[in-house]
Specification:
alpha/beta; 5 helices
Length: about 160
């Protein structure tokens, strides 16, 4: 992987992890109410504190493990990777109740299924300033027009050749 492509993947991964860390559940209630003389809790600042770890559900062998190491060194956020070998495997696991994933990497047609089944959280575009730099080819995808639920992770084409 070249330094430029590693930087691009790393940058996208940082943005997605920060955005998606906001999708976590609320704070569990305390088992005992605080004492009457306890100092008041800090008021929310409006800032989102990054998660200490994120669970990333990705295609097997899609991400160089060094990316996770660099990400953790740079952010202090540990990445736990779980992998799948097909969209059907990933979808079945999630439909079966598996949870806790912060980022998942389904293919286009699977995104449509997951949207219909209410399996994806909406993105807050205010937290993704670079979305305005995306090509219309990606912001007007038929499976998620306007990128309400997802952003592209990678794109490309494959060329085949042969010698006579």
């Amino acid at each position: 992987m070249t330094k430029k492509s590693l930087s691009l993947v790393f940058g996208l991964f940082i943005v997605l992890s920060i955005v998606l860390s906001a999708c976590g559940g609320g704070v569990a209630p305390a088992e005992e109410p605080p004492a009457a003389d306890a100092p008041p809790a800090d008021a929310p600042s409006g800032e989102i504190e990054p998660a200490k770890e994120i669970v990333f559900y990705n295609w097997s062998e899609y991400m160089d493990p060094e990316v996770y190491t660099l990400f953790e060194e740079k952010t202090g956020i540990k990445v736990i990777e779980d992998t799948f070998s097909s969209n059907e495997e990933m979808l079945a696991k999630l439909q079966g109740g598996a949870s806790g994933y912060v980022i998942i990497v389904p293919s286009d047609y699977t995104v449509s299924i997951m949207i219909e089944e209410g399996m994806l959280a909406k993105l807050d575009h205010n937290n993704i300033p670079n979305i305005s730099n995306m090509s219309k080819q990606f912001t007007e995808a038929p499976y998620d027009p306007g990128n309400v639920y997802c952003l592209p992770y990678q794109w490309g084409s494959t060329g085949l050749g042969y010698l006579d």
